[in-house]
Write a structure and sequence with these properties.
Helix content: 25-40%
Strand content: under 5%
Radius of gyration: 34 Å
Oligomer: single chain
Structural class: mainly alpha
Largest sheet: none
Shape: elongated
Order of helices and strands: HH
Number of strands: 0
Length: 156
């Protein structure tokens, strides 16, 4: 009852009630956040355990994805067969290699001669199912689209 005896709650009682509701909402929100964090941690631990199990070495030389294990004898010292150039300074290109050189352009073949080759890098291009011809076509089209500057020496 209020001070005036009418039975209506006083302003102080209304404020206390509102503060109580806000506290309940705040505690409920903190509880939900805590539960979500706990769930995320459990899921991350399960994911790490699953990945560790998946990446564990197989008992035989074949891995679960069908590739060979690094210690497989097939990886031991591959035979190196030197190819003698037909003329010193020239290399004879085998018939099965297609040499299709891009036209000189600012975006994918600037035409600047290499002073020396320091190494060769072979990497995955990130476009599965494409052929060497399609990759070459991408670089050739850069001269027309002017989308970006990019270059490559060989496509396998």
């Amino acid at each position: 009852m209020s001070r005036d005896g009418t039975g209506a709650p006083s302003i102080r009682q209304n404020k206390a009630k509102k503060r109580g509701r806000r506290l309940m909402i705040a505690y409920a929100l903190r509880g939900v956040i805590f539960l979500l964090l706990a769930l995320m941690i459990v899921l991350m631990v399960c994911g790490v355990l699953h990945i560790r199990e998946y990446l564990a070495p197989a008992s035989d030389n074949k891995l679960s994805d069908g590739n060979l294990a690094p210690d497989d004898p097939a990886f031991s010292e591959p035979p190196i067969v030197p190819i003698e150039p037909a003329i010193p300074g020239e290399i004879k290109i085998p018939d099965w290699i297609v040499q299709d050189i891009l036209p000189v352009n600012e975006y994918s073949r600037p035409g600047i001669a290499l002073s020396e080759v320091n190494g060769v890098v072979v990497h995955y291009t990130g476009n599965p199912g494409t052929t060497a011809e399609q990759n070459r076509s991408y670089y050739k089209n850069l001269a027309e689209t002017k989308e970006t500057y990019a270059s490559s020496h060989f496509y396998l």
